From TrEMBL:
Coiled coil segments of this chain: 489-516
Family the UniProt entry places it in: Belongs to the glutamine synthetase family.
Signal sequence, start to end: none
Matching InterPro entries: Gln-synt_C, Gln_synt_N, Gln_synth/guanido_kin_cat_dom, Gln_synth_cat_dom, Gln_synth_gly_rich_site, GS_Type-3, GSIII_N
TM region positions: none
Pfam families: Gln-synt_C (PF00120), Gln-synt_C-ter (PF18318), GSIII_N (PF12437)
Domain GS catalytic: 178-615
UniProt keyword annotations, A-Z: Coiled coil
Annotated PANTHER family: GLUTAMINE SYNTHETASE, TYPE-3 GLUTAMINE SYNTHETASE
GS beta-grasp domain ranges (all copies): 84-173
Keyword check for Coiled coil: yes
Cited PROSITE patterns: GLNA_ATP (PS00181), GS_BETA_GRASP (PS51986), GS_CATALYTIC (PS51987)
Organism: Joostella atrarenae
Record protein name field: Glutamine synthetase III
Length: 728
């Protein structure tokens, strides 16, 4: 009983909720560690403050002299918060966040030193970041990368470090991170949506995309998690038989939160609030030891940063509380996986949610405009939407019959469907007075009531309208929201730009009134985007068949899904909207394909190692015990022993069969890996890993899991599902 498994299990028996120091009202500590507007007003000259605000609101450049002043104010404030270092905090294409800490401390001679932080250190840095993925962009010496301050996301003190959110770009201007394209996409949607919003309200001067993410995760006892090589190296279990009890009793969902977990959550939330992350809800999720945390929605760039920061903070806080947090989309088979729903909308500088109907017919037409344009955008670019959530880890979840399918469809509920059906009949060209009255009273006028009692929810839809926002449900729990947000905002920007052109043309050339022109264009969009709308069960096989008939794409894996990203259509779109150029797009796709292949490669190695070095030796050990037993029976009972040991003899044979299956499958898998590694093209390599290597995982697992059921529990080396999932 000396295996790491039992040591880990024993450890969990002594676990107590960790005492935490969480006092005071959240409203009082909200943003305490953030260099926000309020702080800036207090610690900067009026001129410097105004310059930062105009950089935030209008993207104006900050003057060098003022940058020095801002940096100095930032540093002094950070020091009062306990900061000794600063870092340009950025999001390289690994999907995580990166930071390299530099000290404020600077000796001026051998007996004196000062705390220094100037404008140029604030605005631009050159991290020695040659090891971040760049997809060939930085192959030349000239094309080094630098980080540049993003003033739209406020600096914050995290631990003892002042973190300055930055973009990471090459000297030739190509984005090397997730933030730069996101900022460009947000700019594009701002431009296009502002123009359209001004049809309804001339005072609109800016439109922000809003994002409210919902983060699902598993929380596993640290000792148990670290006892499993697969969890440590791949973030998920590659083996493990389902426990007798899973989630079938639904007794975890919204249940009372265990004390140890609650203390973790309270400390985490407390730190989040100090960092300005407006965390709001927490609850148990469907699977055992699965939880969810969601904030109030925010401007999308800030929300993306906050999600990245949260994931980092969760890791650290969990560790302190003797947990390991699993962000993997599918850490365990047989129970639900985790997602990160992205609730998205557009809001004007006046605070109007453009996906929310108002009290006047005009406001309702505004709602319809943004609502229908979004549907049309998703319709026209469903393949890009799908690709934006593609990853080796999310592949286990999409289409697994419990999570959004890999087919992208839009759910709007039966009542809004009726509204769109009626709008489809709006007659072409000029509307008669009667038609206008009808539209006003019976269609557009009814929308607010409809949405008030719109309780329609469809949990099986990948892209659902939920009252005053769209909820993109296919995003993986591990992914950086920047990717789906970049795509969504880009396609909506493009769509709104087109809409504006079409409406203006009808007004100018056909002499239509504005409302008539809008109705005319919307009517065509409703017709043209019908096939993306689906109200039924998105998890059903029938829908897959129906989707195929409709000509919707259904990319079941990442290598296939990512093809859409480099299509001519996609490159034209990104270039037109100024979000990415072809070099950036191709580089990104290559990075993602490489990452995919690496992930499967690592998993394959880990699986081979566990199967051969843990499972097989244990099975042989147990088999030897059985053989000893049979031998003993033979010694004692002579030729009668067979009658006494039929089960043992069967077991001995069964174990041998599983062992030989595992051995041969592992051998084949290794051969396939070798062949895959020889392929040079990223696409082909990823496909080989997907189609040739990955299928062995399930086969190897099958035999290992059978052995788990056969072998004496006392010597099984791998921590079992019941221990991982039901230890609180
Ligand atoms: P649910 O959709 O689960 O019923 P809510 O309606 O409360 O729950 O919203 C869920 C999430 O949607 C929250 O994280 C919230 O911040 C976000 N959300 C609400 N309104 C918006 C909006 N206008 N833009 C973006 N996200 C939003
Ligand atoms: Mg939700």
């Amino acid at each position: 009983m000396s295996t790491i498994r039992f040591k880990a299990v024993n450890k969990t028996f002594d676990r107590k909720p960790l005492p935490i120091d969480v006092t005071g009202k959240r409203s009082e500590i909200f943003g305490a560690n953030v260099f926000n507007e309020l702080v800036m007003r207090q610690v900067m000259s009026n001129e410097a403050f105004k310059s930062v605000m105009s950089a935030i609101e209008g993207g104006m450049k900050i003057d060098r002299k003022l940058a020095d002043e801002i940096a100095s104010a930032m540093k002094n404030w950070a020091i009062t918060k306990g900061a000794t270092h600063y870092t340009h905090w950025f999001q390289p294409l690994t999907g995580a966040t990166a930071e390299k800490h530099d000290s404020f401390f600077e000796p001026i001679n051998n007996s004196q030193a000062v705390e220094k932080f100037g404008g140029h250190q604030l605005v631009q840095q050159e991290p020695d970041a040659s090891s971040f993925p760049h997809g060939g962009i930085r192959n030349t010496f000239e094309a080094r990368g630098y980080t540049a301050w993003d003033p739209t996301s406020p600096a914050f003190v995290y631990g003892t470090t002042l973190c300055i959110p930055t973009v990471f770009v090459s000297y030739t201007g190509e984005a090397l991170d997730n933030k730069a394209p996101l900022l460009r996409a947000l700019q594009a949607v701002d431009n296009a949506a502002t123009e359209v919003a001004r049809y309804f309200d001339k005072s609109v001067s800016k439109v922000n995309a809003t994002l409210g993410w919902e983060q699902e995760y598993f929380l596993i006892d640290k000792a148990l998690a670290y006892s499993r090589p697969d969890i440590v190296l791949a973030g998920r279990t590659l083996l493990g038989h389902s426990p007798a009890k899973g989630q079938q009793l639904d007794d975890h969902y919204f249940g009372s939160i265990p004390d140890r977990v609650l203390n973790f959550m309270r400390e985490l939330e407390n730190d989040c609030v100090k960092l300005g992350i407006p965390v709001k809800t927490r609850h148990n999720e469907v699977a055992p030891n699965q939880f969810e945390l969601a904030p109030l929605f925010e401007e999308a760039n800030l929300a993306v940063d906050h999600n990245s920061l949260l994931m980092d903070l969760m890791d650290k806080t969990a560790d302190k509380h003797n947990f390991k947090v699993l962000f993997h989309e599918k850490p365990f088979v047989g129970v639900n996986g985790s997602g990160k729903h992205n609730n998205w909308s557009l809001a004007t500088n006046n605070g109007t949610n453009l996906l929310s109907p108002g009290t006047t017919p005009t406001k309702n037409l505004q709602f319809l405009t943004f609502f229908i344009n979004t549907i049309k955008a998703v319709h026209d670019n469903e393949d890009l939407i799908r690709a934006s959530v593609a990853s080796a880890t999310n592949d286990h979840r999409l289409g697994a019959g419990e999570a959004p399918p890999s087919v992208i469809s839009v759910f709007i509920g039966s009542q809004l469907t009726k509204v769109l059906d009626e709008l489809e009949d709006v007659s072409k060209g000029k509307l008669s007075p009667q038609e206008k009255t009808d539209l006003k009273l019976n269609v557009v006028g009814k929308i607010p009531e409809i949405l008030l009692d719109n309780t329609d929810r469809n949990r099986t839809s990948s892209f659902a309208f939920t009252g005053n926002k769209f909820e993109f449900r296919a995003v993986g729990s591990k992914s950086n929201c920047a990717k789906p947000m970049t795509v969504l905002n880009t396609i909506v920007a493009k769509q709104l730009k087109e809409f504006k052109n079409e409406v203006d043309e009808l007004i100018e050339k056909k002499n239509l009134k504005k409302d008539e022109a809008i109705f005319n264009v919307l009517r065509e969009y409703i017709k043209a985007s019908k096939k993306i709308r689906f109200e039924g069960d998105g998890y059903s096989l029938a829908w897959e068949k129906e989707a195929e008939k409709r000509g919707l794409s259904n990319s079941k894996n990442t290598p296939q899904a990512l093809k859409a990203v480099v299509s001519k259509k996609a490159i034209d779109l990104y270039e037109e909207m100024g979000v990415m150029n072809s070099v950036e797009i191709i580089a990104r796709q290559e990075i993602e394909l490489e990452e995919y292949a690496h992930k499967i490669q690592i998993e394959g190695r880990v699986l081979g190692d566990i199967a051969r070095n843990h499972v097989i030796p244990t099975a042989i050990k147990y088999q030897n015990t059985l053989i000893q037993n049979v031998k003993g029976l033979k010694e004692v009972f002579g030729s009668d022993f067979k009658k006494l040991a039929p089960e043992q003899i069967d077991l001995i044979e069964e174990i041998s069969n599983h062992i030989s299956e595992i051995n041969s499958k592992v051998k084949f898998m290794i051969e396939e890996r070798k062949s895959a590694n020889k392929l040079e093209k990223a696409q082909l390599k990823a496909e080989a890993y997907c189609n040739k290597v990955l299928p062995y995982f399930e086969q190897i697992r099958y035999h290992c899991d059978k052995l788990e059921l056969l072998v004496d529990d006392n010597i099984w080396p791998l921590t079992k599902y019941r221990e991982l999932l039901f230890t609180k």
